[in-house]
What does this fold into?
Amino acid sequence: MPETSKPLIAVAGATSKQGRSVVTSLLESGRFRVRALTRNADSAQARGLAGMGAELAEVPLALGHQHELVNAFAAADGAFLMTPPLLPPDSEEYPLGRELADAAVEAGVGHVVFSTLENVEERTSGAKWAPHFTDKALVAEHIRTLSIAHTFVSLSFYYTNMLEYYAPHVEGDTVIMPFYLPEDFRAPFVDPLTATGPAVLEVFSNPDTYLGAWLPVVGDVVSPAEMIEAFSQVTGLKAEYRNAYTREGLLNYFPVFAENPFFADETIGMVEYAVEFGYFRDDRDTQWSRRIDPNTLTWEQFVRNTDWRGEPVAFGN
Ligand SMILES: NC(=O)c1ccc[n+]([C@@H]2O[C@H](COP(=O)([O-])OP(=O)(O)OC[C@H]3O[C@@H](n4cnc5c(N)ncnc54)[C@H](OP(=O)(O)O)[C@@H]3O)[C@@H](O)[C@H]2O)c1
It folds into this structure.
């Protein structure tokens, strides 16, 4: 297919873990062109995407830039939209998500895929506070009112959280792994770096099949105890669980949360929500991503493939 006749997909947050996966899958398929939106075209990650063949568009991913976003979405057949990690209490995730979607409509984009999460406020009747979930659900509600073809993907807890944000430490010969979940509670997890792209590629390859769909992306449903056992089997290292599910445990093992009590409240609200209400609504098709991508990594495969041995890992620019 001549390069210019391939559909063009604009990717917001292209250098993020989700975004990089989307850009990689779309380009590797050989069937799409990609415009990668970034705040900094000179970053190592952005240059990496350009090296793969993505066109770069430098645009702020922040409120008040709808005009620049419209330009960045111009002539795109599709757009992958996501909101970056923004901390409470001043997170502008909901208005930012709306701005992205409105800009896509104004630019005449054919189909948007938005990375969303469940509405925790609604599901818990206000008992749990996790605005970075609920705000994404409100953005999805807004998108449903727009005259644009749309599909939602929804990522599970990331495996990478344990490498990036909740890294273990070593005591003697043992890797100490504090988890934000109870030891035996099974939750959905996924590798955002390898699972987001195949899901989004599937949607843009068969857009009519997925009009209005809400699609969970799941690699494994696994408990901390099972994750630690698999980690030990793969690495040969001794490892032990520690409880960072309670506020006391979270602040003890990850003192950074004490710097922003809203962030601690939000994290606790999120994990209590997942444990008491379920990360995904019961009617979600949690098998979908494995059906369309049987190679979606389980936790054990993720540890094996990444050679992770418990050290902190940075995935950013
Ligand atoms: N962690 C989890 O378990 C989990 C699970 C499901 C969903 N999520 C959601 O996934 C989203 C994050 O995705 P990710 O982990 O793929 O992102 P990420 O790797 O942290 O990257 C975020 C990207 O967003 C851009 N960005 C723009 N404004 C930013 C800002 N103010 N702060 C930080 N980055 C900013 C940056 O790109 P440029 O510098 O190139 O512009 C950066 O590469 C969040 O909305 C989070 O709620 C997380």
Summary: The mean pLDDT is 97. The longest strand covers residues 149-155. The two ends are 33 Å apart (CA to CA). Residues 21 and 193 are 5 Å apart (CA to CA).
